[in-house]
Amino acid sequence: MRRTIRFLLLLTALIVLVGCGSKAPYMLVEDFSKKGTRLVAVMPPIQATKGIDLAGGKILRDKAIEELYFKGYPRLPFAGIDERLALARVEIRDGEDSARSLGRVLGVDAILFITMEMCGTSYFLNTAKTTAAAQFILRSARSGEILWQMRVVRSKRTFHVTRKWLEQDVIGVYEPLLRDVVSTALATLPDGPDA
Fold it and tell me: Which residues contact 103 (CB under 8 A, 6 or more apart)?
């Protein structure tokens, strides 16, 4: 009996340590530094579902280009990217073929796809939970292979006395939460050539 209890306690402790000790999962190709990734084009975010706010996508894209710049990747203006995409009429979707065709049109080394999986707020009494989830995939513009990939989910709870004040607080939480999603994801990306 004692042996069984010890075994169960040890098993429980092991499960807790493994579950709490894991870092944010991301995938990085082994020879990333040899791929020659210098120019990275950040695509407009792809919406996984129809109900996602478009303003959230703009925040994610703006923050992504800012984070890439501070990691040593040259800044490519959105206007130039969007203009070339409009002229070429290339559909933006994650995939090898899409990355290669976008790479030919834009003349870059890699394409960063951002998929907004979820971005919304749920209310219960006088509390609100705002959740944002996004997937970041960096693909080679030459081969279309995935160079780096990470999925981030962040949430923030707020509480207020009245529903009206609670809704105002949620507005203030929205942008910092999305910025945190991008910062967390791109912190795992290796530094660029100009770092």
Answer: 109, 110, 111, 140, 141, 142
